């Protein structure tokens, strides 16, 4: 029945993709009329681009998932052996995804601060983590062979370790990371939707391989975990593919923060329900779209952004490249501020970065101040 439900899910995903395509075309003029649009700052044309169009695809995704809910459980309806734990797993995942979509839309409309972006995903993860706990799911992790060999002269580690409550902290951190990771690597046409499409397709392939390994044995340990991941991923991949079609260069729509949070939370949910939250971290490496070293660059970008995040250096929230309309090219982003606005730690940071030539600094006098 699980495999039949998977085919039904794939069919509904295709229907959802068609609906997304039609709705995006219909809502482009509506968004512009409601003044819900942005301007592409790296283009000659200043034509309005509808935003956040991700909310349309997210709404279609939720409807597809709601319609699909009965199908995996038809054979158990009216029976005493109804798998309530499996139903709760799906519902808890949808609750977390719905709250992430709400957070993203609120961010698009209200421009939330970073502390809210860290707090809300943490709270929205509670239903999912609670169901994971009451369902008696494992908190045991496999110790990597290389780690056991490295510490073997000092301590003998077992193959597996039950880390108990720490595992729930880890899963909560995965959710917060995923909901913000897609949002951080953004700013180029098709980048948010493109990286999400790559990751979701990769994770779907991973799940299909695992399902194939189990064969037709639906009672095998782990079979259901990968099937439920596919239940969430197939509609998401279908809707994201349509959104990417409109968002790729030259973009006709912007996805907005709504899509970024929806995408990140969906990937986090499937990894937790599918029991491969650690493996998901590997799938975030292909966030390249147009960049072959995203993980390294994201780490450097985070360290480079610390003075900005903690307001040590006056700097715009989004460091967009500076566009030159005459040459139709972009150059490095710059921020202009008074020297008196610079804090002590910020001054130290600028001095260090300037000395090792990773920061361009130009001092000039304006209105009698440096």
From TrEMBL:
Chain ranges passing through the membrane: 6-32, 53-73, 85-106, 118-135, 155-185, 197-215, 227-246, 258-276
Cofactor(s), names only, from the UniProt record: Mg(2+)
Assigned EC number: 2.7.8.15
Alphabetized GO MF terms: glycosyltransferase activity; metal ion binding; UDP-N-acetylglucosamine-dolichyl-phosphate N-acetylglucosaminephosphotransferase activity
Compartments, as annotated in UniProt: Endoplasmic reticulum membrane
Main localisation: endoplasmic reticulum
Catalytic activity: a di-trans,poly-cis-dolichyl phosphate + UDP-N-acetyl-alpha-D-glucosamine = an N-acetyl-alpha-D-glucosaminyl-diphospho-di-trans,poly-cis-dolichol + UMP
CDD domains: GT_GPT_euk
Alphabetically ordered keywords of this record: Endoplasmic reticulum, Glycosyltransferase, Magnesium, Membrane, Metal-binding, Transferase, Transmembrane, Transmembrane helix
Pfam families, per database record: Glycos_transf_4 (PF00953)
Domain of life, per lineage: Eukaryota
Any GO CC annotation of this UniProt entry: endoplasmic reticulum membrane
Topology of the protein relative to the lipid bilayer: Multi-pass membrane protein
Pathway listed: Protein modification; protein glycosylation
A GO biological process held by the record: dolichol-linked oligosaccharide biosynthetic process
Family membership noted in the UniProt record: Belongs to the glycosyltransferase 4 family.
Record function comment: UDP-N-acetylglucosamine--dolichyl-phosphate N-acetylglucosaminephosphotransferase that operates in the biosynthetic pathway of dolichol-linked oligosaccharides, the glycan precursors employed in protein asparagine (N)-glycosylation. The assembly of dolichol-linked oligosaccharides begins on the cytosolic side of the endoplasmic reticulum membrane and finishes in its lumen. The sequential addition of sugars to dolichol pyrophosphate produces dolichol-linked oligosaccharides containing fourteen sugars, including two GlcNAcs, nine mannoses and three glucoses.
Name this polypeptide is given: UDP-N-acetylglucosamine--dolichyl-phosphate N-acetylglucosaminephosphotransferase
Species of origin: Caenorhabditis briggsae
């Amino acid at each position: 029945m699980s495999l039949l439900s998977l085919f039904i899910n794939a069919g509904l995903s295709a229907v959802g993709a068609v609906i997304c395509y039609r709705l995006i075309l219909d809502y482009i003029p509506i968004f512009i009329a409601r003044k819900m649009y942005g301007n592409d700052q790296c283009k000659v044309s200043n034509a309005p681009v509808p935003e956040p169009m991700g909310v349309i695809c997210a709404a279609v995704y939720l409807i597809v998932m709601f319609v699909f809910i009965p199908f995996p459980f038809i054979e158990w309806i009216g029976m005493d052996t109804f798998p309530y734990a499996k139903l709760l797993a799906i519902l808890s995942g949808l609750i977390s995804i719905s709250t992430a979509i709400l957070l993203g839309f609120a961010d698009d409309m209200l421009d939330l601060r970073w502390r809210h972006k860290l707090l809300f995903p943490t709270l929205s993860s509670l239903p999912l983590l609670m169901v994971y706990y009451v369902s008696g799911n494992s908190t045991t992790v496999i110790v990597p062979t290389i780690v056991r060999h490295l510490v073997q002269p000092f301590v003998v580690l077992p193959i597996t370790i039950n880390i108990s409550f720490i595992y729930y902290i880890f899963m909560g951190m995965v959710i917060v990371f995923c909901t913000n990771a897609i949002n951080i690597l953004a700013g180029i046409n098709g980048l948010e939707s493109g990286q999400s499409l790559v990751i979701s397709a990769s994770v779907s392939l991973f799940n299909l391989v695992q399902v194939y390994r189990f064969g037709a044995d639906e009672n095998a340990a782990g079979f259901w975990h990968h099937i439920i991941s596919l239940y969430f991923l197939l509609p998401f991949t279908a809707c994201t593919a349509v959104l990417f079609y409109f968002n790729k260069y030259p973009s006709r729509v912007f996805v907005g923060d709504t899509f970024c949070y929806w995408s990140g939370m969906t990937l986090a949910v499937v990894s937790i329900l599918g029991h491969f939250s650690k493996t998901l971290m590997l799938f975030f490496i292909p966030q390249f779209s147009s960049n072959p070293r995203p993980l390294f660059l994201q780490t450097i970008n985070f360290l480079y952004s610390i003075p900005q995040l903690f307001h040590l250096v006056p700097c715009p929230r989004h460091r967009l490249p500076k566009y030159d309309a005459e040459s139709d090219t972009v150059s490095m982003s710059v921020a202009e501020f008074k020297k008196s606005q610079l804090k002590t730690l910020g001054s130290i940071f600028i001095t260090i970065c300037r000395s090792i030539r990773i920061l361009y600094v130009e001092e000039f006098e304006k209105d009698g101040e440096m």
